[in-house]
Design brief:
The structure is a single chain. With 338 residues, this protein is α+β, with helices and mostly antiparallel strands. Strands 4-10-9-8-5-6-7-11 form an 8-stranded mixed β-sheet, sandwiched between helices. A 3-stranded antiparallel β-sheet has the order 1-3-2. Strand 8 and strand 9 form a beta hairpin. The chain contains 15 helices and 11 strands. It folds into 3 domains: 50 residues, no CATH class; 137 residues, Endonuclease Chain A (Endonuclease, Chain A, 2-Layer Sandwich); 56 residues, Winged helix-like DNA-binding domain superfamily/Winged helix DNA-binding domain (Arc Repressor Mutant, subunit A), CATH 1.10.10.10.
Length: 338
């Protein structure tokens, strides 16, 4: 019986089936649902989204959306070393549960809402300004997307200067591609030793943390909506994610490590590893913060350096060279590059 149920509902709490979505939402709105109405969606019981009402076993009561959100993010925390992309999935599910839970929002310490949806750029900027004014110690940020545009840097410059004036320390994470943006270099020179920057091949979506008490993350793809998080468990989770990425990152003042393979740059090594995972050109470009055209130019150079005449052959040569992340085959790669 359990096996058949798992086959009918092969999903987790981050992506409910249509029936589960409907019944759980109804349970949240009403406070409980008859057990008979949940018989068609055993996944809700298996995922602990519904549980028996101790006062009347014929009814089921929902686990609060806030508890589900916390559980989802805790699960991502356990897997963050395996795949940073899981954070994006959790944020999408987080937004859905937050919408259901607005009427029952958790209170943050000291009052106010633990999760607040900010709709529109003006509301986001106002909330960021408020957090900046209250910040006294530290700001942590993750800035994806490659080279930072002048408009992006200018939009947040007044906040950064206000923080510098109060002696607030800042740590910023970027992709390696951001190293090539003159605007970022000018910004860091202006901020002096107030800001420390490091880079990675790829980072999670945008994240801003003030004093480890309030965090801002995007709530939709075009970043016209954001979530303001003040729940201590959620903020602590995001701080842990940042610190783990920070330890893996390379200081902006230090050069990127050499690949050890003649003719193959660090970026091409990163592209080769993502190709080996089976990703398409557009996905690789987005994750590394470069254009699809630039990505394809690097793939062409990889093919030429490794002597591959087709994508299939390129995959074989990448594995032989150890560029798939296995670390094996470097001598063969050096031979191929001659």
């Amino acid at each position: 019986m359990a096996g058949r149920r798992a086959e009918q509902h092969p999903h987790g709490a981050d992506r409910l089936c249509e029936a589960g979505d409907r019944v759980y939402a109804q349970a949240v709105r009403r406070g409980r649902v008859p057990r008979v109405e949940a018989e068609a969606v055993p996944c809700l019981l298996e995922l602990a989204l519904l549980h028996p009402d101790p006062d009347d076993m014929d009814w089921l009561v929902p686990t609060s959306p806030q508890e589900v959100m916390t559980r989802l993010l805790r699960g991502v925390y356990d897997e963050v070393s395996e795949s940073q992309r899981r954070v994006g999935s959790a944020v999408a599910a987080f937004e859905w549960y937050a919408g259901l839970g607005q009427s029952q929002a958790l209170a943050a310490p000291g009052g106010g809402s633990a999760v607040r949806v900010l709709d529109g750029l003006s509301r986001i900027q106002a909330a960021m300004d408020e957090a900046t004014q209250a910040c006294t110690t530290e700001v942590l940020t993750v800035q994806p997307g490659g080279i930072r545009r002048e408009a992006e840097l200018t939009e947040g410059l007044h906040r950064a200067l206000a923080l510098r004036g109060r002696g607030v320390r800042m740590r910023d994470l970027y992709t390696h591609v951001a190293r090539h943006g003159q605007g970022l270099l000018n910004y860091l020179e202006l901020m002096g030793d107030t800001v420390e920057a490091r880079t990675l091949d790829e980072v999670i979506d945008r994240l801003i943390l003030f004093d480890r008490t309030v965090a801002f993350i995007p709530a939709n793809a075009d970043r016209t909506m954001a979530l303001e998080l003040r729940h201590p468990a959620l903020v602590e989770y995001l701080v842990t994610v940042f610190e783990r990425l920070w330890r893996l990152a390379i200081p902006l003042t230090a050069p990127l490590p050499d690949t050890g393979i003649e003719g193959i740059s660090h970026r091409e090594q990163s592209i080769a590893a993502l190709l080996a995972e089976g990703h398409q050109d557009a996905v690789i470009a987005e994750r590394l913060g470069i254009s699809v055209r630039t990505c394809r130019a690097h793939i062409a150079r990889l093919s030429e350096t490794l002597g591959a005449a087709s994508r299939t052959q390129l995959g074989v040569r990448i594995a032989q060279a150890g560029l798939d992340g296995s670390g094996r085959g470097v001598p063969a790669a050096r031979e191929a590059s001659r």
